[in-house]
Design brief:
Blueprint lengths: L6 E3 L8 E5 L8 E3 L6 E3 L5 E6 L3 H14 L2 E7 L14 E6 L2 H5 L1 H11 L4 E6 L4 H9 L4 E4 L4 H12 L11 H13 L4 H11 L4 H8 L3 H15 L4 H13 L1
Parallel strand pairs: 5-6, 5-7, 7-8, 8-9
Antiparallel strand pairs: 1-2, 2-6, 3-4
């Protein structure tokens, strides 16, 4: 079986500081991960979209190439800045790899909030040269799913991405257990974005999707995505159940 080849394709809709790496045609192909000695098949459904936000071009391109060659992503997009990334809200969730430069660290609250406003379903993985415990815990409290130091091995990066894809949270073992527990607890309490909290208020009033879309000046399909995400995050089985669980969460 010939190995899959990947190429960087210029996309006129993308910023000149962005790149997109996509396998040429995944439909009907059996993908493999690992060396010739122990290759395991990967189903198309197990793959995930990955978006890297990293200003240093060399680091961004090398990371993206490694991710594609590892066969863990259905597509890998790279951008120099968060403003260059214009996600399609209907594409489902993506793992966002955010490289934390000094400028981003200073504005970490704003940056993470901006990512969730752009794509509420995003699962954020932080990367930084400095593994500061306060920064790590702060990032997780704000909703990030993992924090990886740039001195980590690529195997660790892949393991963290798989954990995040499965719904888990990864932090370095050096972080005290009590801090991990507190950070994860805060994450579960504050995972609803400001837009999702708005949606909850409309659900409380019993408004249909069409009314919500008109009042918020967004598409009806976008409302459906927001409602679905709210119910998933809250573990709700109905719109009414979502309101009840949102109220219970506010009391915690």
């Amino acid at each position: 079986m010939k190995p899959l080849s990947f190429s960087i394709e210029a996309n006129p809709a993308m910023s000149p500081h962005a790149s997109s790496l996509t396998p040429p045609n995944l439909d009907g192909l059996l993908l493999y991960r690992g060396g010739d000695g122990g290759r395991k098949p990967i189903s198309r459904e197990s793959l995930v979209r990955i978006v890297s936000i990293c200003e240093p071009a060399l680091l961004r391109d090398c990371l993206n190439h490694c991710l594609v060659e590892a066969g863990v992503a259905i597509s890998v997009e790279g951008y120099a800045t968060l403003d260059d990334w214009q996600p399609d809200i209907n594409e489902g969730f993506a793992i966002v790899l955010l490289y934390c430069s000094k400028g981003i660290i200073i504005e970490i609250d704003h940056i993470i909030s901006k990512i969730f406003n752009k794509s509420p379903q995003s699962r954020i993985v932080m990367m930084a040269d400095l593994e500061d415990s306060s920064l790590i815990v702060r990032s997780i409290k704000l909703g990030a799913r993992a924090f990886i130091g740039t001195n980590s091995s690529f195997d660790l990066v892949l393991a963290a991405l798989q954990l995040v894809r499965a719904g888990g949270i990864y932090m370095p073992v050096e972080i005290p257990r009590q801090e991990i527990g507190a950070a994860v607890g805060d994450t579960h309490k504050s995972r609803l974005t400001s837009r999702q909290l708005e949606i909850v208020e409309y659900l409380r009033r019993g408004e249909p999707n069409a009314v919500i879309a008109r009042e918020l000046n967004i598409k009806n399909n976008t409302v459906k995505v927001h409602v679905r995400n709210v119910m998933r995050i809250l573990g709700a089985k109905s719109r009414f159940d979502a309101v009840v669980k949102a109220d219970l969460r506010a009391e915690l």
